[in-house]
Amino acid sequence: MALLGELEQKVMNILWAAPKALKPAEVKLQLHCNLAYTTIMTVLKRLTDKKILKRTKMGKVYFYTPIVAKTAYAKNDLRSFFGNIINSYGDLAISQFVDSVKAKPEDLQMLKKYLEDKKDEQLP
Question: How far apart are CA 85 and CA 90, in angstroms?
Answer without folding.
Answer: 7
